[in-house]
Amino acid sequence: MTNLVSIFGTYNYRARLNCAILFIAPILLEMFLIFPQFRDLYTAIPVIIVIYAFLNVFIILTRMKGSKAFSSCYKGKLLPAQQYLLPNDENLDKITKQRYYDFFKQNITGWEMLEYDEADNEILRFKKNTHNKDMANSAINWLIAQTRDYQKFYLVHEENMNLAASYNMLGLKPYAILLNLVLLAANIAVLYFSFYPNIIFTNEYMSAIISTIINLSFLAFWIVCVSHDLVRKSGHKYAKAILSCCDSTYLNKKE
Prior knowledge:
The protein is mainly α. It contains 9 helices and no strands. Helix 1 packs across helix 2 and helix 2 (10-34) packs parallel to helix 7. It has helices at residues 2-8, 10-34, 41-73, 80-85, 94-107, 122-146, 154-193, 203-225, 228-243.
């Protein structure tokens, strides 16, 4: 497992390859349970080689599907970290938000948030809101660039990987559900056509039952656990983690 992480990198392993493993796990378990020949070492080796090649391609596929899924969660809206910085957002208390404002003013030339209220005319509010969104995006982009050190900012990278894994799984969700439904139908067919006194409770029959239970479990996981809400909650955790770096001694170190 350590070699796998070192080959693909921690981020790819946690955010993308884990999703690939979850996706293909039902197929691998089905092969292992239903077809005894796949338990043989000489058969397993070429299968492992094919899986390895598949995982390399899967990094690209998950990135494409995951990006679309991520965009669908925040269509027309700012990401949580940027949203937290807006003056009218209430996710952060005023004292903490002001401390973050002061931090960005000290580190980003020309950075400033504009206060506005309902008394401002519509055009003025629109201009101020557009300005603030640009400032929020600029601040978070700068903060991301400053927190790339994995060892110094471990929590940021941890939450970033969790967020990426959640939206990559969401991108794969339709395909994973379809795959498990196909496997489930195949197992039900095996059980139906094997329903004879001399076959019931044989190893093949029991393997089909176990495989069916596994398919149902994976199906429940993809339907219930993987959702837009999971991505949004992960996004909020990442937002709090990266914004808390404004209080980090590494970024506030005086020269």
